[in-house]
Each structure stands twice: as C-alpha cells, then as structure tokens.
Design a protein that fits this description.
This protein has 631 residues and is α/β, with parallel strands linked by helices. β11 and β12 form a beta hairpin. The longest helix has 18 residues. It is globular and about 90 Å long. The termini are far apart. The protein binds flavin mononucleotide (FMN), iron/sulfur cluster (3 copies) and FE2/S2 (inorganic) cluster. One iron/sulfur cluster binds next to α24. One iron/sulfur cluster binds next to α23.
C-alpha cells in the first residue's frame, strides 16, 4: 500500500476492505493473544487452528486479538458469526471446534463458561455476567481486531476522527470539544484533559511535544498494557489529534516499560503501518500537518510514571521528579511545552471526536463522565480486565462482574488506586466509583487497580505490603518520603512480627500525615494512604496485633504457632522429613512440633496429606473476655 495523499483515499480503502469482507462472509475465529492468554498457551492455539484449517480444508479467518477481558479463563476463543465463546482452549481443541462449531454450528459444552452468578453454561459473551454491566468505550476494539493489521482498525472506522479534525475542525475547536466532553485524565489524578491541552496550546513556542504515559508501574495493573497490545492505533490516533490541537507539535513519544514486550512489539508494528500509509510523518493525508511518533522504553522504576520524572527519563537523565511550577505545559521535555496524558485518556479521544462532546457525558457521572478500565484482581471469582461506566458501585463490580467472593467467603475490603490507594471496608460497598467519591473517603481512582480482599486478608499486612513497595520505589530526593516511609515501614514490620508497642498507631498516623503534606511528588504524598486508610477503617486489627499479639485474619506467621491435630494424623512422617529445623519428633506413635525449634517456615503444612498441621493464632485477652482463636 502506498501513502494516502488525501483523506478521500483513506475512505476509498475503507470501503474496499468492508466490501471485500462482506462479500467473503468468512467465519472468523478470534483467538485472544494478549499477554495473559499467551501465558496460557494462546500462540499454540493459533498455530493449531492454522494447521487444522489446512488439514480439514476449511476456509476461515484466524484472528489473533488483544485481551478479551476474562484473562483468568484463557486462552479465550470466539467464533463469529455465531459468537460462541470458548474458554481454556487447548491446541487439541482446534480440530473439534472446526468440525463441530464452524462446520456444523454445534456448541461444545466442555469449553463453555459456567457463569458463577447464574451457575449456567453461557454460549455467548453477553450471557456471561462478567460482561453484563461493562461498557466498552476504550476497549471497543480490543479483543475484536488484530492489532497488527491496520486494515482491521480502518475497517471499523479507525482514523475517521483524524479525518474529521483535519478537514472540519480548527485546533481550537478540537480543544473546545475535548473540554466540553469533560474528559478527565485516566492516569490517576483526573485532571481535565481539555484544560491541559488548552494550556499547551496557549504557550508560545516553535517546538512542542506530546507524550503518552504507558509506564504503568502499579503491581498487578495491566489496563494500559492491554490497550497498547490490543488496540495501539486508537492511542496513536488520539495522540495525532492532540498534536494537531497543540500546534507546532511535530514529535511525540510513547513511554512504555521494557517489561511490556508485546505492547512494544504491537505498537512498533502499528506506528510503522501508520507511517507507510501517510497517517504519521510529513503532510498527513495531504493536509500539510506533520507529526511523528517514537517509542521510548522505561526500565521499570515506578517513579518514572510520574510525569516530570518520565520526561527526564526520556531526555536520558535519571528519572526523578522536580518541583512544579513550572507546569509541563509551559516547560516540559527539553524545556519545551509538553502535554502528557495516559494511554486510556488518548484512547478516549477518537470516539469523543466522532460521537461528539455531548455523547461522552451520557456515560458515567456528572463529575466523572465516561468509563474506566480496571484490572480486577484478588479474591473474586472472575478476575480480569473490565471497563465500567463511572458511578458503578463497588458492590456491582465485586458481585455482578466479579461473580462474588471466592469460596463464598465474606467480603472484607477493596483496595483501589494501586499501591498508593486506600482500602475501603464493606460499609462502602454501595459507594459509586468515580474520581471524587473515592477521594472523599480516603481512597483514590489511581490508574485502575482494584484488589478485592476477603476475611482471610490481614489489613495490617496488606498496608505493610503496599508501603514496602512504595518505600523501595521512593527515589530518595526528598527527606519526608525517603525517611518517613522507611520509618513507617519499620513500625509496621515490628507490628506484624509481634513487637508492636503502645503508641505505634499514633506514630504511624503522625508520620503519614506529615509525609502527605511535605513530600515533593505524588509518590510520597500518596504512599501513606494504604496505612492511614486501614488504620481508619480497621483500627481494631492494629490494636489486636499490638496489644494482644494476635492476628485476627490468621496471616501474620510470627504471631501464630504450628501444631499437629493428632486425630487426623496418618503417621506418614512427611512433615518430619521436610522439616529442616528438626522441630518435629515422633514419640510413642505421635508426631509433635517442638515450638522452641520451630522457625514457622510452613513447609510441614505444605506436605501434610490430611491438613492436620495447622497454624494456630490465640488472642490472650479480648474485649469480651472470651478467648478467640484464628486458624
Ligand atoms: C509515582 C507516580 C507514578 C505514576 N505512574 C503513572 C503511570 O504509570 N501512568 C500514568 O498514566 N500516570 C502515572 N502517574 C500520573 C502522572 O504523573 C500524570 O499525572 C498522568 O500520566 C497524566 O495523564 P492524564 O492527565 O491523562 O491522567 C503517576 C504519578 C506518580 C506520582
Ligand atoms: S516524594 Fe519520594 S519519590 Fe517523590 S521526589 Fe520525594 S523522595 Fe522522590
Ligand atoms: S513450620 Fe517449618 S520449622 Fe516449624 S515444624 Fe513446620 S517445617 Fe518445621
Ligand atoms: S504429614 Fe500430616 S499426616 Fe503425616 S505425620 Fe505429619 S501431621 Fe501426620
Ligand atoms: S489476555 Fe486473553 S482475556 Fe485477557
């Protein structure tokens, strides 16, 4: 294909692709090839389909796609036009799917999803409750198109928004439209995108830059990775539109972490294809507008997701935040005006331009229009990538989409906003999920991690875990964060080891609030959140650890001891064999654990075939005077 010299040529190509596809009416087998499904062998499934298609002489399209959402049940396969949805597909299943489903229209029960909410087999995606309350705006193409084939994107209206702005809108009108939509940045803070772009446009300079933040350093998060892997053109298109709106912006950067090889690969392919067609580079679609993109790879430091640190990193300097002002829209990359947005923010732009600014606020809430993608993880039955309208409640996410708590245990808390977010208890199950509601109760939207916890999660340990992450990732530039997070972590380490002291809770609160007020950047300002929110909502758990040396959730190893329940013991001796500390002895046909030797490593629990080695937690004194035991 040669470069388009005008937007008309793009429309001609789109029509040609659509006509050909309509004429062929091919069956399409969409095999998820996102990182999650690849880890479960999706690439072998694609190969098996190719081989079997040749062997059985059946003509159909095998389309490797990006994430389809229900990653935990991957590899996922959807057969169109029947829209049959298959989970945990093995390469050996390819032959049967071709023979039964493609050739004879039959559904294979064994590969269907059993819906955890209804308990019934689901044939199509829309019958699976996981998808029921989702609304796909950013993920509109993810899981449907082959991200490495620009024709797939063009066929479903890709680059139409670009054509619209180049032909019918001035840069000011683009900014007005984005402002009117009230799109708020999805990178965490929810800053209005239109206002940011306006700030960038107003700054006078011959050179300006636009940057996409795809660093995504939160542990467990994979929203941005999935968009970049599954629909890179929507981000590229959003960035070209942003560059046009800024003016004098001929160069942009997409910052992606090195640990996202598939995202980098698919982005590289997409950028090259866009360049070949004249959608990037000089004189885009014959409009006289020049803009090109470059991928910059991050080395994996969490702090490099912070906008100023990210820009230093692109410049080849050490990724450390700087004080603001000056804001980046005035002085950013190489001191030039720079607009930086998150992956999801950019991917929202093309539909806003096409459907209009009035359409966008019809989804979500007044203050937080649109949708949000979350990586739903933790103790729920369905984990994966979800996109929901803002304003949905936590209960709907956990029970309707997530299918409820694993093992039908009690919901205890939800952690939103990644390692610097807050933990909310069950009293907030009906809280609407939007930027402002979450902030009001001490949590935050962040970039979209959502971890669900049940009764077996110890909230002190959870806070300690998240703080240990931010503490290690602190760049060390300012003392409140460098020293304060270290001190807080030391206190938490003592508490979970049974060495907590009276006054520790107050010390944590005091240091935490001090860091929030005085740290230089968002990492330090938000690092105490998990600790302060768990103290606020689960103070009794801290008190139990400190006063009674007791972990109510039965998780903090140092506070419990190991014992063998004789009744179920088979006398197999496996526990004694595995114990590296000679803590288990056999005496008169009984196995004992000598607590003075036991190092609480847990190896004996792992090997015992009957589960009669248990960890026992005893509370010496309780508010009711009764003895409490957790195992
Ligand atoms: C420690 C730290 C890490 C961050 N990591 C990310 C990230 O991985 N991705 C992201 O988009 N924003 C991240 N942010 C927020 C960015 O600084 C910035 O606000 C955001 O990318 C702006 O984009 P938006 O306006 O589209 O939300 C981080 C902020 C801090 C303080
Ligand atoms: S708050 Fe922490 S991460 Fe941010 S500049 Fe200070 S030391 Fe570095
Ligand atoms: S917990 Fe470890 S040290 Fe203690 S008895 Fe079991 S295997 Fe031995
Ligand atoms: S492994 Fe379990 S069943 Fe076997 S001797 Fe030890 S406690 Fe008894
Ligand atoms: S990676 Fe396949 S469903 Fe998410």
């Amino acid at each position: 294909m040669s470069k388009f010299k005008s937007s008309k040529e793009l429309s001609v190509l789109r029509k040609k692709i659509c006509d050909e596809r309509a004429k062929q009416k091919k069956t399409i087998v969409r095999v998820c090839n996102g990182t999650g499904c690849r880890a479960s062998g999706a690439q072998k499934v694609v190969e098996a389909f190719k081989k079997e298609a040749t062997k059985q002489g059946v003509d159909f399209e095998i389309r490797p796609t990006g994430c389809q959402g229900l990653c935990e049940k991957g590899p996922l396969v959807i057969v169109e036009p029947l829209d049959v949805f298959y989970q945990k597909v093995d390469p050996f299943d390819a032959a049967k799917i071709i023979d039964l489903t493609i050739n004879r229209g039959k559904v294979i029960d064994r590969l269907q999803v059993v819906d955890p909410v209804t308990g019934e087999l689901a044939v199509k995606e829309e019958e699976i409750s996981f998808y029921g309350k989702q609304q796909r705006v950013v993920l509109r193409n993810c899981g449907h198109i082959d991200p490495t084939n620009i024709e797939d994107y063009i066929a479903i209206g890709g680059y139409e928004a670009l054509v619209k702005i180049l032909n019918d809108m001035t840069p000011e009108e683009v900014i007005e439209e984005v402002k009117k939509s009230n799109l708020r940045g999805r990178g965490g803070a929810g800053f209005p995108t239109g206002r940011k772009w306006e700030g960038g446009r107003r700054t006078k300079s011959d050179v300006k830059y636009i940057v996409c933040n795809g660093d995504e350093g939160d542990p467990g998060a994979f929203m941005d990775r999935s968009v970049l892997e599954g629909d890179p053109h929507s981000v590229i298109e959003g960035m070209i539109i942003g560059a046009y709106a800024l003016g004098n912006c001929k160069e942009g950067f997409i910052y992606v972490r090195q640990e996202y090889p598939l995202a980098v690969e698919n982005l590289t392919v997409a950028i090259n294809q866009a360049r070949e067609l004249g959608l990037l580079g000089e004189n885009i679609l014959g409009s006289g507008f020049d803009f090109d993109l470059e991928i910059k790879r991050g080395a994996g430091a969490f702090i490099c997701g912070e906008s100023t640190a990210l820009m230093f990193s692109i410049e080849g300097k050490r990724g450390m935040p700087r004080t603001t002002p000056p804001r980046s829209v005035g002085k950013g990359l190489w001191d030039k005006p720079t607009v930086l947005n998150n992956v999801e923010t950019f991917a929202n732009i093309p539909p806003i331009i096409i459907k209009g600014a009035d359409w966008f606020p019809s989804i979500g809430t007044k203050g937080s229009p649109g949708t949000k993608i979350f990586a739903l993880t933790g103790k729920v039955k369905n984990t994966g990538l979800i996109e929901v309208p803002m304003g949905i409640t936590i209960r709907e996410i956990v029970y309707d989409i997530g299918g409820g708590i694993l093992g039908d245990k009690e919901f205890k808390a939800v952690q939103t906003g990644g390692p610097s977010g807050g933990c909310l208890p069950k009293e907030y199950l009906d809280l609407p999920v939007d930027f402002d509601s979450l902030t009001e109760v001490g949590a935050m939207m962040g970039s979209g991690g959502l971890v669900v916890m049940d009764e077996s999660n110890c909230m002190v340990e959870i806070a300690r875990y998240f703080l240990s992450f931010t503490q290690v990732e602190s760049c060390g530039k300012c003392p409140p964060c460098r020293i304060g997070t270290y001190e807080m972590l030391e206190i938490l380490n003592r508490i979970v080891e049974g060495k907590g002291e009276e006054g520790d809770i107050e010390r944590l609160e005091s240091i935490g609030k001090h860091i929030q007020k005085t740290a230089l950047c968002g990492l330090g300002k938000s690092a105490p959140n998990p600790v302060l929110s768990t103290i606020k909502y689960f103070r009794d758990e801290y008190e139990a650890h400190i006063r009674d040396k007791y972990c109510p959730a039965g998780q903090c190893t140092a506070l419990g001891h190991y014992q063998i329940n004789e009744e179920d013991c088979l006398l197999c001796g496996l526990c004694k064999e595995v114990c590296a500390y000679d803590a288990i002895t056999e005496e008169r046909n009984r196995f004992y654990i000598d607590l003075s030797y036991c190092q609480k490593c847990g190896a004996c629990i792992g090997v015992c075939p009957t589960g009669c080695v248990v960890r026992q937690f005893e509370r010496k004194s309780t508010p009711t005077g009764k003895q409490e035991v957790a195992t």
